[in-house]
C-alpha cells in the first residue's frame, strides 16, 4: 500500500528489505511473530534473496524507532484527551523497547531435517521455524533456483537422473550449507529442510556447526509407509507443492537412504499431531 508517496522518488523507490522489515516489525509489535516467520520463509522460497537477512534487523530497528517517535509526538499533543496521550506514551515505550530488543544477540542454532520423502519434513521445519524464530532453507527451492526454474515448476525425473544427478545434488548441498553459514552469521537460527539421505551430506552439517561454534540437531522424520504413500499421491494429485518427491520414487529412495548415525538427533513420528511433535523437539534442547 503506497500512502500518497508516489510524488517523491526517494520515498517511492526503497530497499525491498525495508518494506519486508516494516511488516515483520509490526507483527512483532502485535505479538504475532510466528506469522512473520511464515511470511519471510515463504518469501525466501520465492526470491532466493537470503542477503536480505543481513540488513533485516537494521530496518526493523529503524521502523520501530520511527513508529516510537511518532507516538512520542502524539503523547505531547494538547489537542487530544489525556487518556490518549497516556496511551501514546505507553505505545512509544513499547516501540522503543522493541527496537532495542533487535540489538540483543542470542546464539543461533542449526537444525537439519532428515528422512524419506513424504515424511513431513517441510511441515515440521516450517512449524518449528515459526515457534522459535528461524530461517528455513528448503532444498527443493535451492535446486530450482540453481537450475533457473521457478519454485513451482516440477522436475519429474527418475531417481538420480536429470536434475537429480549426483553432481547437481552435491552442488545443491554445497549451496545450502553456504547459505546456512551466511544466515547464521547474520544472527538467525537455521533449519535446513532436506532429506540428507547420505551420511556425507550430514557430515557437512556437523562440520559447519563446529566451524561456527553453534549447537546443532538433526530432526529425523519417520512415518507409517501407508500414510507416506497416501501423502505422496495427494501431493502429486494437487500439484501445488514445490517438492518433486513423488510416489514412484519411494521404493528406490528407501534403498538409497543411509541410516542416521549421528547422536544429536530428535526423532519424531509424523502420524502424531504436529503440535505434539513440536513440543517434543522443543523439550530436546
TrEMBL record:
One family from Pfam that matches here is AAA_33
Q: Which Gene3D superfamilies match?
A: P-loop containing nucleotide triphosphate hydrolases
Top-rank taxon: Bacteria
Q: Write the protein's name.
A: Aminoglycoside phosphotransferase
- Provenance organism: Desulfofervidus auxilii
Amino acid at each position: 500500500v503506497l500512502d500518497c508517496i508516489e510524488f517523491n522518488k526517494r520515498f517511492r523507490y526503497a530497499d525491498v528489505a525495508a518494506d519486508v522489515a516494516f511488516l515483520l516489525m509490526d507483527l512483532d509489535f502485535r505479538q504475532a511473530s510466528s506469522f512473520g516467520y511464515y511470511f519471510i520463509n515463504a518469501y525466501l522460497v520465492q526470491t532466493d534473496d537470503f542477503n536480505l537477512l543481513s540488513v533485516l534487523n537494521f530496518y526493523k530497528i529503524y521502523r520501530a524507532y520511527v513508529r516510537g517517535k511518532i507516538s512520542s509526538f502524539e503523547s505531547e499533543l494538547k489537542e487530544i484527551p489525556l487518556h490518549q496521550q497516556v496511551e501514546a506514551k505507553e505505545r512509544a515505550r513499547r516501540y522503543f523497547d522493541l527496537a532495542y530488543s533487535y540489538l540483543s544477540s542470542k546464539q543461533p542454532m542449526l537444525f537439519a531435517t532428515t528422512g524419506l520423502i513424504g515424511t513431513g519434513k517441510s511441515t515440521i521445519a516450517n512449524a518449528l521455524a515459526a515457534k522459535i524464530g528461524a530461517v528455513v532453507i528448503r532444498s527443493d527451492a535451492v535446486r530450482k533456483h540453481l537450475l533457473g526454474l521457478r519454485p513451482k515448476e516440477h522436475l519429474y525425473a527418475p531417481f538420480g537422473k536429470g536434475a537429480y544427478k549426483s553432481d547437481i545434488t552435491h552442488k545443491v548441498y554445497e549451496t545450502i550449507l553456504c547459505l546456512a553459514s551466511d544466515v547464521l552469521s547474520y544472527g538467525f537460527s537455521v533449519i535446513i529442510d532436506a532429506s540428507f539421505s547420505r551420511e556425507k551430506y550430514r557430515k557437512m552439517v556437523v562440520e559447519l556447526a563446529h566451524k561456527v561454534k553453534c549447537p546443532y540437531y538433526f530432526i529425523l522424520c519417520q512415518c507409517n509407509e501407508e500414510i507416506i504413500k497416501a501423502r505422496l499421491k495427494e501431493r502429486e494429485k494437487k500439484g501445488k507443492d514445490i517438492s518433486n518427491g513423488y510416489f514412484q520414487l519411494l521404493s528406490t529412495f528407501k534403498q538409497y537412504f543411509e541410516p542416521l548415525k549421528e547422536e544429536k538427533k530428535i526423532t519424531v513420528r509424523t502420524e502424531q499431531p504436529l503440535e505434539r511433535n513440536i513440543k517434543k523437539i522443543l523439550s530436546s534442547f
